[in-house]
Specification:
3 helices; mainly alpha; 89 residues
């Protein structure tokens, strides 16, 4: 195992983590921005007004993207385990 293999695995892991986090983060960002616009327009400063829609949106994003996220994680893990013999050379 050399340093190139370690860096390749680390880069692939970071890319997979970014792909998996993107749906939840983008959903939370969009909902947070919309709620912030609404709060600034109406001057309502209620904590639950910002929190509850984000939780609901993130839950929906996980329901919609959950199967794809799980498949991506399983594929990455299978590729790591399949690559173990080449790493031991």
């Amino acid at each position: 195992m050399n340093d190139t293999a370690v860096i390749h695995i680390a880069v692939e892991g970071l890319l997979v983590a970014g792909k998996l986090a993107a749906p939840v983060l983008i959903t939370s960002l969009v909902i947070g921005f919309a709620v912030s616009l609404f709060q600034s327009a109406t001057q309502i400063q209620e904590f639950t007004l910002a929190f509850v829609p984000k939780v609901i949106g993130v839950a929906i994003a996980l329901l919609v993207c959950g199967h794809w996220m799980l498949t991506t994680m399983i594929t990455f893990t299978h590729e790591l385990f399949a690559g173990i013999p080449q790493l031991l050379k």
